[in-house]
Amino acid sequence: MDRKSERTRAIAAAVGDIRAIEAAEGVNADSLAKIRERLIALAAHTDLFTVEDFPPPAPDGARKSCLYRVSEDPDHRFALYVNASLGGYGTPAHNHTTWAVITGITGAEKNRFYARTESGGVRETGDFVVKAGTGVAFMPDDLHSIHIDAPLLNFHMYGLALEQLHRREYYVPAENRWQVFPAHADIREARADA
Known about the structure:
alpha+beta; Jelly Rolls; six-stranded mixed sheet; four-stranded antiparallel sheet; 194 residues
């Protein structure tokens, strides 16, 4: 079996297992931990997920990170992306409005976690570095930010595809207000059947 076919088979098996976990257990901390572990197992196949197959944006471009859609159900559920970054990239504190799991393939992504404050802002509650063999999971209202210093590849999986998340918010600290995230500007189609 060639590498592309093997990658397609491995993704389909992982997403099938993840669908079954959510169907059997719903969305909660325990089920998301199982989904995270399944994605960590998929990410361990580093021979199937390489920078040659999923290159980051050009070094001289405006963007430092891009997403490759490798799986998404017809109803836009169970969307799996490979995130490819040059480094020098980060996001403000934000929610997802759906469950989310991030696991490492290569490199490191620092995640900072937050809670909303009574004044409408955020308070940092902790952090975790996602790298090979590790991951983080988020309920729909959980808040985090990501910080990438050097090149990486990792998985981002959402219960609903990014383009369907019309109420996803991020915090604007200088104005102490929340704003709706604009649509992600660089999602590249990488599904085998697309």
